[in-house]
Amino acid sequence: xxxxxxxxxxxxxxxxxxxxxxxxxxxxxxxxxxxxxxxxxxxxxxxxxxxxxxxxxxxxxxxxxxxxxxxxxxxxxxxxxxxxxxxxxxxxxxxxxxxxxxxxxxxxxxxxxxxxxxxxxxxxxxxxxxxxxxxxxxxxxxxxxxxxxxxxxxxxxxxxxxxxxxxxxxxxxxxxxxxxxxxxxxxxxxxxxxxxxxxxxxxxxxxxxxxxxxxxxxxxxxxxxxxxxxxxxxxxxxxxxxxxxxxxxxxxxxxxxxxxxxxxxxxxxxxxxxxxxxxxxxxxxxxxxxxxxxxxxxxxxxxxxxxxxxxxxxxxxxxxxxxxxxxxxxxxxxxxxxxxxxxxxxxxxxxxxxxxxxxxxxxxxxxxxxxxxxxxxxxxxxxxxxxxxxxxxxxxxxxxxxxxxxxxxxxxxxxxxxxxxxxxxxxxxxxxxxxxxxxxxxxxxxxxxxxx
Amino acid sequence: xxxxxxxxxxxxxxxxxxxxxxxxxxxxxxxxxxxxxxxxxxxxxxxxxxxxxxxxxxxxxxxxxxxxxxxxxxxxxxxxxxxxxxxxxxxxxxxxxxxxxxxxxxxxxxxxxxxxxxxxxxxxxxxxxxxxxxxxxxxxxxxxxxxxxxxxxxxxxxxxxxxxxxxxxxxxxxxxxxxxxxxxxxxxxxxxxxxxxxxxxxxxxxxx
Lengths: 452, 208
Hints:
The structure holds 2 protein chains of 2 kinds. By secondary structure, chain A is an alpha+beta fold. Chain A is built from 19 helices and 12 strands.
């Protein structure tokens, strides 16, 4: 019975799983090209589906940070072919559960009591998975509570997991290694923060209080006395995840209300709080038929540095963009072009970026925007796919785009993709954001005109 | 003299001196007791050390049996709960165990030191396995099933060694290791995987 003494827990074993997947993906390509030789009509969709499946299987076995990376990749729909996205989107919902005894053990270790002693009722069966933990339903004080529990050893394995995921991610996303390094630092920092449930609890309480005035948003109450660095207890929110919600056929009016609430929530955070709930994957929102939406999971908060904020939103200003020198200055500040670039590269890349920004910021320039406009998203996806396949982009040896843009872009991508699924019509005007900020009574200094 | 007092004093001696007392006589002096009293309970320091390991196990089991939740667990969960609690029990004695590490982790030698614990553990596991047959969590197979206890013993030793080397916060990597090890073992004995492995092995060796 020797196999029981060699449990795959170490880095090497994890790495070997990835190697196995790498091999499988390689084989899929081989299969694809052979099939193509025999039958030239074979589509790449099929290949992508094969790959996504194998990659997904590997990632869901690994849990923890690898699952998080899967989630992250699944967010950037624009960067990934459709098949990858579908398959990865599943990872946002389910992962194998923690055993009952381990749950009890975590309670005893961090709160000194068993769940039975702490709550009136505690469901041992997890209600759902939360990427680096799972959520249980409980009762106390006559209230239904959601108790989030972290998998043991997540923090310890984040670093080694990421190192293993990296070469793999380069393959999938098609980014070069230099780019990846810069971004992986950022991701690593954020992931480590996410494993700190005390920090998350603080963020959650803070941000929910600051955003409580936004219409149709619902935040749970958090219970610090029933939380530790591995456990968070909050109110149980009713509602449905995006996909289930849409299956119930909500009316256009309800979808608009929810879309508007989400739009307001993000605009307010970015422009007034200068920090943002940077994890807008559908699992973090619960939607209800009365047009309200529950928001939780503030594990990933991105603080937006002032100079990045100013430069990023200057790009939306058509007036400034006409000034060639000013424009290049902004691009340089955002690390999209570098002083070492040749004139040809500058023209090429700034052209690409401007086109991308024009597309992504289109809603900002309108009074109202219909996110159900499929042509708009198809155009974005096609353009992204076109850009990522460009020889110049693939072979670019320098990182393009500030590290801060990673989470800010991801946030907007995530928001857009939810709004697009909702087919929501949203008031996107600048006056609406200004009103929200004024209503919150933010200090006069902060309520200066937005640079957009 | 109570057995428990002797065990506690002996552990305390180790913690303070980092070695075994020179003789039973010297040890009894420390306890201000007669040497004969010691021998009424233990024949030697070896016997005493064996009993310490057994007592960690017995105390764990005692706590589990009192627990209502434990009784309602499936067999897999029972074993998990046992390991978690056992490790908690050991944690209270970590210094002593680390001092003893070189002695019981030597191949061959540890079998002696952990002997009484092993016998008690085997009894416990046999009961669990029987329960597993009834709940259907474990498939009964001729000859092979009898060997399961040895597998679980190897697993217990794995957990012990992992915990001894573990330097993560709150030993949470050990928690993860236990969870994974137990899940794997139950997947192996609950399905036909093990049969297939053995069948394949037999084929390879016999089919030459």
